[in-house]
Amino acid sequence: MCAKPSAASCRATEVLARAYQPHDFDALYKLDQSCFPHGIAYSKTTLRYFLALSSAECLLAVEEDDIAGFVLSELEGPVAHIITLDVAEAYRRSGVGSLLLNSAENSLVARGVRTVFLETAVDNQAAVSFWSRHGYVVEGVLKRYYLNRIDGYEMRKMLPRRKIHDMT
After folding, report:
1. How far apart are alpha carbons 28 and 41 in whole angstroms?
2. CA 80 – CA 56 distance, rounded (Å)
3. Pairing state of beta strands 115-121 and 79-87?
4. What is the number of domains present in the chain?
5. How much is the pLDDT for 18?
6. 152 assigned to some structural domain
7. Looking at residue 167, what is its pLDDT?
8. In this predicted structure, what is the pLDDT of residue 162?
9. What's the CA dihedral at 148, 133, 75, 22 to 10 degrees?
10. At residue 49, what are phi and psi to the nearest 5 degrees?
């Protein structure tokens, strides 16, 4: 019996990271739609486009057959862009976002990436705090970036030459 009512505290199985497979698409699309408002969430066409990029990497956090989250990035030489990091509501604040980010960063370092950047809405305090905790710093403000009315932050992080596996 669980002492706490949260789903994360009652899990008997482990959440693991794995690579995206084409049969995951519908679940990823559905998750992205649940994580972001209409107009910010990706359309099927846009999500398929990003996943099909030869420079893209998509990692999933899975618990048995349940997709807890995913991170999608693309790279160009020593610079990578985190396109999105989505975590299902039931898995938030359980370490899934950190697992995904650390897995992605480790992979990017292994591929020679030194700098990672991303965008997040200035009014998404949970996301800004998450990224800041993980060493990302605000580099600038992108005026009316989301829905032509919400400003975004461009955030950036320099990666070490070798990333030490860290699940925190």
Report:
1. 11
2. 9
3. parallel
4. 1
5. 96
6. yes
7. 45
8. 65
9. -80
10. -60, -50
pTM given for the model: 0.87
Q: Is residue 163 part of a domain?
A: no
The whole-number average pLDDT for the span 91-106 is 95
> What is the length of the chain?
168
C-alpha distance from residue 47 to each of 1, 59, 84 (Å): 40, 14, 10
Half-sphere exposure of 100 (CA within 13 A, CB side): 31
C-alpha torsion 154→38→36→64, nearest 10: -140
What does the pLDDT read at residue 141? 97
CATH number at residue 54: 3.40.630.30
- Which regions of the chain does DSSP assign to beta strands (E)? 16-19, 56-63, 66-76, 79-87, 115-121, 137-146, 150-158
Q: Which two tokens stand for residue 165?
A: 């596996």
